[in-house]
Amino acid sequence: MQSMARPFLLLLTLIIAIMIALFFQTRAINSVDHTQRLDQLLQLRELDAVLDEQTLLIATGVQHQYDTQVNFRREHDQLMNQMLTTESAFNQGLNQPSIELLESYYQLQQRKYALTEEIKHYAALIRNALLYMPTLVEELRDQNHPQRDDAARLMSQLFRYHLFPDQKRLTELRQATEQLHLATLDNQPALMAFANQANSNLRHLESLHQFRDEFNHVDTSSQLRTLEKSYQNHYNQRSRHAEVFTLTLLLLTCLLMLLLGEMFRRLQQLNNRSEQARTRLQDAVNSLSEAFALFDKHGRLVLYNQRWLAFYPWLQQRNAEDWSTLQSINKSQGVTTSSPIAVPLDTTQNYLEHTPDGSWYQASNNPTAEGGIASVRTNITETQQAHLKLRQLGRALEQSPSAVMITDTQGIIEYINPKLSEMTGYTSDELLGQNNNILKSGKVSADIFTEMWQQLRDGNTWSGQLLNRKKDGTLFWDSTSISPLRTDEGEISHFIAVKEDITERLRTEEQLRMVAAVFETSNEAIMVADHQGTIKVVNAAFERITGYSADEVSGQNPSLLSSGRHDRVFYDDMWSSLNSEGCWSGEIWNRRKDGSVYPEWLSISALHDDEGQITEFVSVFSDITSRKEAEAHIRHQAYYDALTQLPNRSLLLDRLEVAIITAERDQQTISVLFIDLDRFKYVNDTLGHEYGDELLVEAAKRLTSCVRESDTVARFGGDEFVILLHNIHSDRDAALVAEKIIRRLSDPFTLAGRDIIIGASVGLAMYPGESDDPDTLLRNADLAMYRAKQTGRNRFQFFTSSLQEHANTLMEMEQDLRLALEHEQLEIYYQPLVRTQSGRVTGVEALLRWHHPTLGMVSPEQFIPLAEDTGLIGPIGQWVLETACQQVSQWQQQGLKLYLSVNISGRQRDLGMDAPLLRRILMQAKLSAEQLVLEITEGMLLDNSDETIAWLQSFCDLGVHLAIDDFGTGYSALSYLKRFPIDTLKIDREFVRDLTLANEDALLVEAIISMARSLKLRLIAEGVETAEQRAVLFSLGCEFLQGYYFARPMPAEALVAWMADYRPTRLS
Q1: Are 896 and 923 in contact (CB under 8 A)?
Q2: Which CATH number does 33-226 carry?
Q3: Any bridge partners for residue 354, and if so which?
Q4: Do domains 643-820 and 824-1061 have the same CATH topology?
Q5: In whole angstroms, what is the distance from residue 1019 CA to residue 1037 CA?
Q6: What is the pLDDT of residues 223-270, one digit of tens each?
Q7: Phi and psi (nearest 5°) for 917?
């Protein structure tokens, strides 16, 4: 039979494998995917046509906005990327020729994109030029220029050629342009500008038509048609193959159904014969009186009788079809065996089985010839139970937790169990045959024993407590119960005494009585909660401290006392300590019943049972409010100055030590400022100590206002203060704080109705630096403070050598700059501003210069930022305005008609420069506001605040002009130019340095000029150094120039001499 089954199964497997392969071949053709690919090709053709149409509209000037074209291009690119992706459904449905056609189309489309960008570029240039040319024609008409009509005709021809290009119109345009250029040889600027614009526009039109023709020759539509045809042929071929695969699959399915039918018929015959043999064997096994089960060599259950199920009734609900499962089920049901069951079974094994219902079976497992197991069970429950009862009675006495003693009627001991031997210290041999009086202590009344024997002789049971003596003489209390034992005739033959040592219990009861007394009378609150945190009992002190009665908190959780001041981490640490160590103690804030919050010292202990499980938590706490208040008062007195309420020297040293550790760990910088009040002794001596103390208090407030909340201001002693600055970026931050402190302490103090000016000297020490401990850091700051006093008071001084040089340089330059302002070391240079075409000087820009007595000429890039940081820009800026306005006014009175341009910064607004001050300066100088231009940087535009705009507008309201200096290098936007009251732009020298008509700078400058004209803004180009730059700027339409080509900045006297010798040259 097996020889016939194997070829049949091989044939069946082969047919199924062929059917699976054919099934997947037919699934390879998917009409949905085919339709989707056709849709994608159609969408690609539509997008290609739309992109061609959009490009031609841009080229003809019909469409000016490129957003639509850009959106279609983005959609086209997304579709192409999706189709070209190797994993995409579209790409997987193509053959290699179709993929190559798709990639070829992609390359052609990329070429069209490049041509489109060129077309857009030249179309934009042509559109801007055509929009600008009517303005130039209007200027010619306003000038009543003789060639104005020729220019108008030429402009019309350009428009027509742009719309309807042909070679004849191009030739006519070239001739007309050349004739117009000949007419510009007479130095006619307006006509020259028009001719240049016309010639440039004509070149752009030629380039546009060239790129458009090249664009039209890139034939992507035919490439798409070829791709569609290639894909359709490939799809038709695959569809024909799929039809053949489908027919073959149908034939194989029919063959498979026939084979399966024959196989089912043969299996049914074999099953019927097997069932008949099994029925005969089952009838024979069921007739046995023992339980029987047969397992094959694999441990599978092959045969059993009904008595087997009667012995193991739980098997009727469980599937125990193999030997191991049977053992597992029996074990889970509580069946025990007298010896381990051997696996595998080599010889016959006999043992006892005990089931949960009390049955006992004699088990016999015998190996069969083929390696299986024949298992037989015989019920021996009644015999086994009789043996067990006898053993249990003896074991009960031997293992009883109570001591047991049996005597005869005369008290002679005949039996004791191990527990009684353990209790008394006597061995069994020492007590057997002795009278029970051996255990008497002699401290029990004889009346008790008389009463006991009377009860026993009467056949009653006596119970009581006796004080007895152990073998070692130790006294102990036992609880005794004595009963008579009778014979079958009812006569008393023996007495049995059951004893329990209660010495420890009586001692515990006494201790509990004492604990209960302590619990109720303790001044500390006590609370007992179970292992789940439910309050079980509290004492009177708890009620007094919390305000809650015992009934109110019983059954509640201790969280009802929570104040909410402690976070989850606090309680997690508490429970961690309780779980790991069994106790916790610490300070905690809780809430009373009336809502008031109070501090308490709390100790919690966990109580465990014999198995180590927590049963209760005992909490003991006391109200420490009074102690906390006393500690806080003492601590404040110890760490704070009584007069100023600032931290004192002790607290300062503690915080400084912590700050150094933190700075070293987190790589931070800290600074210590040692401050000494100048002239404090004078105030103390003249006004008295009362006002001296008032001055110290006010100085402390001012110092506190100069720093952050995280910093420390401390009174070091007398008139000395120390400030600790945390986490600063550099020594410059510390220097700024020192400057602020000096300014605040230099402001007048009102004492005794008088304004008192004192000042301060400040020493600074940095960490990390020359010191790494608190004492050294303070000492270094103190030494630096004294150095500041020695150099003139009311200043600050760094100590750290590595920072000292830099700090000294800045400080010295600041001091020198102050002196320069006082001693007239500052000087104003003037640079001419000229008209581009005529070369005539129309104004001057005032530029600040510093002649240092030892350093020579100091660059403005060095001292202007310092002046802004230190606030010196305020008085310096005011001096520049006053001096320059007076100078220009004087020149105007001498006949030099010049306007003045002065730079200002936003920092001057904070330092008091406003419209009233500027009005006063102009009035004193007798200079008209219209003759003053204030230059601001693009950076000020970024402020864009209402305050800044209002500040600048206040100057414009006076009639002053505003200009943006170095335009183009910052972040200006048209919105800013519209929002701010600007009327002049100064083109930065970076755009002028390499300026020629052929480079990109010319396009940028031209764009700036066009923008300025549209906003009606005046233009000045800075940095002009060559005649070529002047000519290019003139051709682009820039009105005013400034630079070394005309003159360098020079003092006022030199400017007058230069003006006398200057001969302007006119451009035409």
Answers
A1: no
A2: 1.20.58
A3: 336, 360
A4: no
A5: 9
A6: 778 877 877 787 777 777 767 767 777 777 777 777 777 777 777 777
A7: -65, -45
